[in-house]
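Example 322.
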Amino acid sequence: MKILVTGAAGFIGSHVSEKLLQRGDTVVGFDNFDPYYPIERKHANVAILQQHQAFRMHTADLRDRQGILDLFVQEQFDGVVHLGALAGVRDAIERPAEYVDVDLNGSQNLMDAARFNGVGNFVFSSTSSVYGDTERIPFVEDDPCDRVKQPYAAAKRAVEILGYSYHYLYDLNFTALRFFTVYGPRNRPTMMAHLLADSIVLGKEIALYDGGDMYRDWTYVEDTADGVIAALDRPLGYEIINLGRGEPTQLKRFVELMETVAGGRANLVTQPRPAADMQRTFADITKARTLLGYDPHVSIEEGVRLFWEWYEKNMIQTEELL
Ligand SMILES: NC(=O)c1ccc[n+]([C@@H]2O[C@H](COP(=O)([O-])OP(=O)(O)OC[C@H]3O[C@@H](n4cnc5c(N)ncnc54)[C@H](O)[C@@H]3O)[C@@H](O)[C@H]2O)c1
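Predicted structure in complex with nicotinamide-adenine-dinucleotide:
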């Protein structure tokens, strides 16, 4: 199969692309190398993918509607995995218009190109943040999700809803996967796992919100990538599916695990939780298990150890941090 993976130069996109290539698919990676975090990281991710002959990188912007329409006519993709996005929950508060432009309008450009060209399946990366402050724990997909707390998640929720229209009107197979705090090798440097490791190694001060009394349903990236590929392989009409681990961990515990594997202490400063942040995320993954055969198997202890192994080898030894 020939698959378009947007965000292929990023964290999750590079893992999904790698797995698709390993099983023999052709992958066209799509990314604009957005500078939200250092683009050297993204070039390093792409270099891994370029070891496969069946990979090609297409450097382009999700906002370039005509360019996307032309690309789909040229390539005739069998499926789309749409992971490209501006993805910073707090960053979105500072520049909501750009988030809506890239995350909502950019997604619509791709969905149009997919429907005009009869693409068999469209998998979209949504987020646990769409649940806002729901009181229903664990989070279940049929929650209304209409009190979304910030523009990033609002744009993602809007795409989920638009996906239904595209399925209903144009017969597009559309699956939205709600990711839950994905971590692992190649993690975005702005995410907690990476910030913690930086703090332990370099002594950098980092905020620990509410003294670490927050819960996240941390999901190891290999599990997430397997779930994405399972969704790509199963056109389901229209579905929204949680792709978490289903076992939240207290932030304080996550810190302890990282400090233990790293053999050092992070430089933590307790601060109140920002308004945009949720106190807890917790996925009910029954639907993912049933519809996708999804079965996350990397425990938080193992995942933190694997993250640290990668960090130690790639970040410390290359002195990229300094
Ligand atoms: N990492 C998580 O915990 C998490 C949680 C929930 C949802 N998600 C979603 O998963 C997807 C992948 O996230 P990630 O953690 O790998 O982030 P990432 O930032 O590493 O990857 C996103 C990629 O999209 C690219 N991009 C940004 N703007 C673009 C544009 N205008 N045109 C083309 N490409 C553009 C970036 O350059 C980047 O390489 C995103 O859609 C994100 O919203 C991630």
